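Sequence only, no structure available. Ideas?
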Amino acid sequence: QVQLVESGGGLVQAGGSLRLSCAASGHSFSRYIMGWFRQAPGKEREFVAVISSSGDTTEYAYSVKGRITISRDDAKNMVYLQMNSLKYEDTAVYYCNARLMPDEYWGQGTQVTVSS
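Reply:
I predicted one. Tokens follow.
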């Protein structure tokens, strides 16, 4: 079992920055592929970024590439999402995801609101 708790969301002006954090509890955190997803009002949840268990490989949604960086600190059981040059369309609830097939876990989400 893995429990995920996101933090760091808030209200920011367009062009600003936020860093989201995801604290994970449970065993074998370093074995999990960690990701971030988001869900805007009236839309389906979408992929934002993912980082491999080793931390060597990352992937990003096209819409955020170049503006957002995912990282992990296995010593602290933490995953981060550094978001720069935020746009109005980045407004959403951001969810942390942990995956080690066949298991998958989600956090409760943290709200990010970007004012135009």
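The first strand starts at residue 2 and ends at 7.
Hope that gets you unstuck.
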